[in-house]
Amino acid sequence: MPHPEPVEPVEPALPAAAAHPHSATLKRLEQSSGRLAANAIARMDEMLPWYRAMPPENRSWIGLVAQAGIAAFTEWFRHPETPQAISTDVFGTAPRELTRAITLRQTVEMVRTTIEVMEVAIEDVAAPGDESILREALLVYAREIAFATAQVYAQAAEARGAWDARLESLVVNAVLSGEADEGAVSRAAALGWNSPEHVCVVLGTAPDGDSELTVEAIRRAARHAKLQVLTGVLGDRLVVIAGGSDSPLHVAKALIGPYAAGPVVAGPVVPDLLAATRSAQAAAAGLKACAAWQDAPRPVLADDLLPERAIAGDPSAREQLVEEIYRPLEEAGSALLETLSVYLEQASSLEGAARMLFVHPNTVRYRLRRVTDVTGWSPSDVRSAFTLRIALILGRLVDGDLQS
Fold first, then answer.
1. Is the overall model pTM greater than 0.85, yes or no?
2. Residue 47 has pLDDT above 50, yes or no
């Protein structure tokens, strides 16, 4: 018969605490954890005004975080060679909303206070001869807690930033598509938009590359110009809804840096976010019509592109030209309309217009100044003369349609 294999004797397993090289210190640390947590909370209540001012619910969550931090240190001291998920151990006891209620600075103060309480107690907690061991372990653990704190807040910031970006994109798209409603206003308010009195929309071509970098560049420019902005890259267009200035040209010049080469158009100022659709539509029509005015300034106002927009088929531009130029001239008397028409037909010649009207050139000059006063456009300026001519044509077409 084969002889049985010899069996090695099995030694009885030692308790975990007894197997630890610093078992006495570990045991005393376990016994002191409750007292240390209570001391840390009392210290926070004494030294941190923001902690005293917090509602009881948040204070209780902070107390749990402090207790979890001390318990995690005890477990980490028990198994220093084992990687520990400190962020989960410590901060997992509190709800995610706590990162919104407590700033990163406040969290750092909370962690520092807890570590200081533990440092003070080292002499009492450590077994004789283990003081330096426990102090070194606490220093290493404090470093790990610092990294864990940064990670928790970085993750919360990334999640919040991604959500805010989606929310902002919804608002910008609603304004650009003409679907802005009270829901869009509520979303904008959640993003920090505090309903400024003057709002305009600026459109241009988005640069190649990371759209997040472009958006951040717009935000920096807006902060420098003391403007509120909602912005996003939609397709190849960079859209900015800006509030806080009654000058759309000033807004466009302040924010033009991040735009790619090409035209940048600022829509007219409107009173609020709900009306921003009108500014956005004017800016979009102007951006399309810029191809017809190759020497257009950059940036350019959508209202400066009224004739090109009207020719391109923009009904609001046609209506604006008729209502803001043709009708006021019509109401001011037939002499102004007739003089302007003849003056434009005579290649902007005062003498030629005077001969055709059988009046003195000074009379023509006076009437043309009245045209400028009534419309805001000067017939002697080439660009303004073009706008006035288009307004006259459109006004006559509308009157012809009404008479037919």
1. no
2. yes
